[in-house]
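Q: Hi! First time asking for a complex rather than a single chain. Here are the components, and I think there are two in total. Is that enough to go on?
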Amino acid sequence: MRELATGRDVRGRIVAVAAWGGAALVVASFGLLVADLARRGAGELTWRYLIEAPRDAGRAGGILPIAVATVWMVALALAFAAPLALATALFLDEAGTPSAPRALRRAAAVTRRSLDVLGGVPSIVFGLFGNALFCRSFGWGYSLLSGAATLACMVLPLMVATFDEGLQRVPAAERAAAAATGLSRSATLRHVLLPRAAPLLLAGTGLAVARSLAETAALLFTAGYADGWPRSPLDSARSLSVHVWDLALNVAGGDARACAAALLLLLVVLALHGAVRGGLGWVLRRRSRGHGESVR
Amino acid sequence: MPSDTRHEEARSQELRRRAARRSDALLRGASVFGALIAAALAWWIAAWLVRESAPSLAAVGIGGFLRDARWNPAGGEFGLLPMVATSVTVAVGALLLALPLALATALFLLGYAPPALGSAMRLLLDLLAAVPSVVVGFFGLIVLVPWLARIAPPGASLLAGILVLALMVLPTLAVMVEAALAAMPAAERSAAAALGLSRATVLLALALPRARRGVAAAALVALGRALGETMAVVMVCGNVVQWPAGLLLPVRTLTANVALEMAYASGTHRGALFVSGLLLLLSTAVLVVAAAWRGGGAANPERRAAGAVGA
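A: Yes, that's all I need. Here is the structure of the assembled complex.
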């Protein structure tokens, strides 16, 4: 009996050590990544770097045109993806109501499954697709527009999933109240669903922005490499992530500047994620307190 | 005149109702149209990849892609197998490395972390999952590869790829494994506590066997991600086309090959890159469907992320 207890104790201790050790390793690797990039890149990350154009293939100068092109590309991608995602989420929402006919529910299940598959598609495959469809068939060439359209396809599953989650969290009582007062579907959307789901709609958009900023492989041969000022949507444009890749692999002596660009990219993406998580948590807590009910 | 007013009122009400019906129909049309595009997109991608790769498939033949000894597009040789083997080896290696770590992290979150530390850890995992792959790859290039080069030259190798990819899939894997383990019913948890079972016993002997399906689904999802990852591997693997016969050999994955050669490829060569894209699409689709079949909707990282942002 005693031996059994000791045996269990030893096993318990091993599991505890493994659990703490594994967690510590995760923290350490993340810390190493951030600390190392910060140490190497912080010196280069000056105001001048942010407001100058790159010179000498990016070895000198700054990144302003690249940052501007990145913002345009992400904004365009959202303009494509957000309406599509909202429409899809509304379709899924309507198919989820108890009175929905069976065919509609089947169609919604198929849509969800296709979006699952789409969400698992590697980004380089999105790049190939974008190159074939947008650059060649649509004749947009290597351009900001092709890159944005490719990004839109890529973030669509994430946006639909978040928007869908937002609509699902609208309390059934409020829907019933809207129906009881005879509100039309579009009026319900405007006055009940959208305001109620707004925090998650915003969160989904924020996550999509972060994902677009982080993407490289899908842009290499859709938006291209040009590092000048984008003068039209049909100009080739380089995103910040592609800039990191190009400096790191194709430009000899570009490592220091690649560090700065990578650090900037990392900080922006992490800040966005932190803001989405923190902001959403705050709004949902406040809301559930204010209404004295759970949001679920 | 009162009857007139009533008539006017009824008329305007009817008009309003008609306007509402019209905007409802418009809304329904738009939402069906949007959903149709969203649902068709995956198939559309597959169709375009088939279209673009068909000429090369016809010219080289499936046998050519399998049997050609080398990848030498200029010389008309299109052997994909060494790169397929590399992709699979890197992905499986990364999974084997990341899975125990993810399990340890999940056990930490469920059984050992004080609440404040646990939520900090969850935030950290969320942030780690968001780190752009090009940044992870760059970190591997300037830190990991030189470090490996000192102890096991040349540095840029299969091993470097496995390490970097493991870091990339770890956060999502840990969170999904935790979700699978946490699915244990509360009644069972308190029964176990009442029996005086230790935390380790509860987690390993009770929660883990129940969570097998969920853990398997998480592993499939992670494998799909690892197979499709491009930027991180292309920066650390060395990119020599050869069989992955040793951990320290420089190798090239399918994804890296596309990223490196797409810029200048044309004709049959370009088509051959689309063939590898098609192969990647098919294998990740199979993995996603298998994961969903094993673990249900919870296995979808996209949906999980959506659910977790507000949690």
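A: Residues 85-252 of chain B form a domain with the MetI-like fold fold (CATH 1.10.3720.10). Let me know if you'd like any chain examined more closely.
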